[in-house]
Amino acid sequence: MLSEFSLIDRYFARRAREHTQRATLGIGDDCALIAPAPGEMLAVSTDMLVEGRHFFPDIDPHALGHKALAVNLSDLAAMGAQPLGFTLAFALPKPGEDWLAAFSAGLFELADRFDCELIGGDTTAGPLNLCLTVFGSVRQDAALRRDAAQAGDDIWVSGTPGDARAGLGMMRGEWQMNALVDEKDAAHFRRALEYPEPRVALGLALRGVARAALDVSDGLAGDLRHILERSNLAATVDVDALPLSPALARLPRDVQLQCALAGGDDYELCFTAAPAQREAVAAAAQQAGVRVTRIGTMSSPASTHDAPEIRWRDAAGAPLNLTLQGFDHFHAD
């Protein structure tokens, strides 16, 4: 039977000590000591994943280890921050060794890819709940902030948003998905949901190019409004310009729009940049090996007292009446 401390040492601390480079003091004391490079600031973000709310009880623990860190690295990507390290606190119903081996493997495979060290954490018994805090480094004048967008900016999105939401719909049996997708598309959607790819390289390449950015975790329609609120702007989005994966493009149009605009869990970047930076944006995307698509424009609000507005248009500029809302952790089905 694993004790708390043998669990931590066998599956987490021992592996973390092998790779400690950036932390002045890592696992093994009351606190870790970590500092950014001279002239840079710490970027810090915390995410919690709760069984039944953020992942299914039967999820592959390897996928869960990957996703738990990926969603946090995505926040660093949205700020243009270089990953430094992370802490892991979790509750487990029981410390199964096979589960822990697979979970820690998924976690450290991604951590090693981004040179992000485990520097501390905690564990206890209880319903499965994961809480990670990531630390990154970025110059203050290079951080991609939500309040930095300007009227006239292009709106861009990376990747193909909507695939993760299609995966969720498939696993929930929504929209008669099982009759709509073949085995290959089903595998694509499921991987998008369980193995999101944090766009760290793109976030770093966009420093000095993009103005504002965030990661799409709760749906493009809802998340874009966060930039509008912080920057006091409105937006016009060309729905026909939305980049869709071949698998999503094979679904009915109403399902495509629901997934691509209101779906969450893709962790793609939505960002704004001046029109004069279009070539620089393309170069940043090429450097990062990520597809980016221009989908709209920022504009001044009709009134400073108005709520942030997104005007949906088709490719011909005709208005579309869409009722969309991003994911809400306290009101989700």
In a few lines, what is going on in this structure?
With 333 residues, the protein is α+β, with helices and mostly antiparallel strands. It contains eleven helices and ten strands.
Summarize the helices and strands and which ones pair or pack.
Elements: H1 4-18, E1 41-50, H2 61-79, E2 82-92, H3 97-113, E3 117-125, E4 129-138, E5 154-158, H4 163-172, H5 177-180, H6 183-194, H7 200-205, E6 212-216, H8 220-231, E7 234-238, H9 246-249, H10 253-262, E8 268-273, H11 278-288, E9 292-299, E10 310-313
Parallel strand pairs: 2-3, 7-10
Antiparallel strand pairs: 1-4, 2-4, 5-8, 5-9, 6-8, 7-9
Characterization of this structure:
With 333 residues, the protein is α+β, with helices and mostly antiparallel strands. It folds into 2 domains: 4-142, PurM-like, N-terminal domain (60s Ribosomal Protein L30, Chain: A), CATH 3.30.1330; 146-313, Phosphoribosyl-aminoimidazole Synthetase, Chain A, domain 2 (Alpha-Beta Complex), CATH 3.90.650. It is 36% helix and 22% strand. The chain contains 11 helices and 10 strands. It has helices at 4-18, 61-79, 97-113, 163-172, 177-180, 183-194, 200-205, 220-231, 246-249, 253-262, 278-288; strands at residues 41-50, 82-92, 117-125, 129-138, 154-158, 212-216, 234-238, 268-273, 292-299, 310-313. It has a 6-stranded mixed beta sheet, with helices on both faces. A 4-stranded mixed beta sheet has the order 1-4-2-3, covered by helices on one side. The relative contact order is 0.16.
